[in-house]
Amino acid sequence: MVLDMKINPGLFSVLALLVFVGILFAPLSVESYSVTPSVLKPGETGLIQITLKNVQPSGTTATTATIKNIKVYPYSAAGLEFTAEGPVFVGTLEASASAIASFPVRILANAKGGVISPSFQVNQEDVSAVQKLVVPVKVSNSPVLSLSLDKQSIRGTDSLVVTISNNGGAASKLTLKLNESGKFSLVGTDQIFVGEVNGSDSTQVQVNIDARTAANGVNTLQWVLSYQQEGGDSATEGKSIPITVKKESADLLFSQSSNIVTSTDNLLKITVKNTGKTLNDFRVTLESEGGFQTKESGELKLGTFASGEEKEISINVFVDAQPGVRSIKLNMKWAEDDVEKEDSITIPLVISSDADVGLFVDAKPAPLVVGGDHTLSVLVSNIGSYKIENVEVALEENDAFEIFNAQKSQYIGALESDDFSTVQYKIRIKKIVPGSYPIAVSVKYKDQSGVWVEKNMTREVLIRSQEEALSRGGLPSFVYIIGAAIVIGVLYWWFKMRKPSMPQHHS
Fold it and tell me: 316, 267 in Cβ contact below 8 A?
């Protein structure tokens, strides 16, 4: 809260004048006074101090006589009491000496804000004339204002009942206005005059607000209160209250009714249900943004939209957006009760990935032969537009071969677009009739929309007899092993024969 205090200087000028009326009687002089603290609140205590001095008359050189039996008598004022009884006995003041008379005071709980003026009388021995002074005491009793609204939400234009409660001093000439630039404004006026709100009291005012330029949802109303406090000081403070803006709109429910795949042309279908009153001349336009490009221009006209009716919107679009949940913006226009209205809504759509994998199978040694041991290589390639993750490959046994790996499933990990990876399986071809046999491979992965995909693919492989493999230039696996052993033996003998013999020494 920010208070802008403006003190009335006129009152203090008059009081300051009264302070010294009748007190400049030589030789006793009231030099000054002070109030601590300088501003007091109802219920607080303070201290008034008056400084007295024995001064010489002006223009003389003689020593001023001693002043004896000096007493200062306090006289209370409405809203203030002295907490010590009787006069303050100052006693004797020698020439040029000074003394301070102190008076503890309390501001009463029912005191008004402004200035309280207790008076004092100074007596001295053998002097019939008395000196009197008034000490102004500044009292602050600021209002404690709070605001409340009768509504938690408003429409584009609406009225509110604002309750102003005061738990402090009285506030007079109170005005209320909005401190908003471009969001909220008062209808027909720039401020509302409330008047006076006394302490422990409240008052209500009706406020018409224009919220058409505010955003839908939670906003903040920033109020400015200006008033006069007790005693005439001016003050200004701000108050903020959150409020929800709900602009007038059609009561419609939107739901996606077609699958949308990224990086392709799609027919977007959206089902719309009217849960409110009948709408006439209903029209919809899809904005091309966020990766959605409409392939048709202009509005889609749905005509009369009865209460409870469902309609389907179909729009040809090209989607160039990351897979996942994405939002599109629909602009709507309609006539309701012969009034043209328009609104926009953002609805979420699930965008599927075009993720797909390719599968290739190779064998070493080749070809595959009945009864042979082979290494089967399974290559998985990402042929989609986006990265896939957690790729896992599983090869299934069948009647044609058995797998020697400890696990049928092997983990690849992530594959970028156009990337590939290979896993190997040790297999043995069973004693089967040569021919074409299927190999079943399962590939599981997660696409960029977060959806798990499992593809079961089959590839045909040709298994030959050993005789056919030999006739076509192929050899059984054991032949390769024997051949390798022979080559290693020949190489060993050749290197040993080339080794030079040790020279002989003659005595």
Answer: yes
Residue 201 to residue 212: CA distance in whole angstroms = 34
Task: Please state the rounded mean pLDDT for residues 400-419.
Answer: 91
Instruction: Detail the DSSP E strand segments found in 383-451.
Output: 388-395, 401-403, 409-415, 420-429, 435-446
Q: Which two tokens mark 131?
A: 């000196």
Q: What one-character DSSP code corresponds to residue 43?
A: T
CB 45 within 8 A of CB 101: no
Mind giving me the DSSP string for 244-301? EE------EEEEE-S-EETTEEEEEEEEEEE-SS-EEEEEEEE---TTEEESS-SPEE
Percent of the chain with pLDDT over 70: 84
The tokens describing 249, both together, are: 């709109």
Cis peptide, bond prior to residue 365, ω within 30 of zero: yes
Is the pLDDT score of 149 beyond 70?
yes
Q: What's the rounded Cα separation, in Å, for the pair 455 and 391?
A: 11
Would you state the structure tokens that stand for residue 419, as one six-digit string?
A: 């990337």
Amino acid symbol at 20 = F
Place of tokens 């509504």: 151
Quick check: helix, strand or coil at residue 90?
Answer: strand
pTM: 0.43
- What does the alpha-carbon distance between residue 17 and residue 231 come to, in Å, rounded to a whole number? 19
How many Å apart are CA 300 and CA 294, to the nearest integer? 12
For residue 14, the SS3 value is helix
Q: Specify burial of residue 483 (Cβ count, 10 A radius: 0-12, 13-18, 19+).
A: exposed
User: Which letter, b or e, does each residue of 240-275 get, where b requires 16 or more Cβ atoms within 10 Å of its Cβ?
Assistant: ebebebeeebbebebebeeebbbbeebebebebebe
Q: Is 29 helix (H, G, I), strand (E, B) or coil?
A: strand
User: Residue 227: which residues within 8 A CB-CB, separation 6 or more?
Assistant: 143, 145, 171, 172, 173, 174, 175, 197, 234, 235
At 150-187, the pLDDT tens digits run 989 887 778 899 999 999 999 999 999 998 667 888 88
Q: What span, in angstroms and rounded, lies between the C-alpha atoms of 490 and 252?
A: 87
DSSP secondary structure letter of residue 6: B
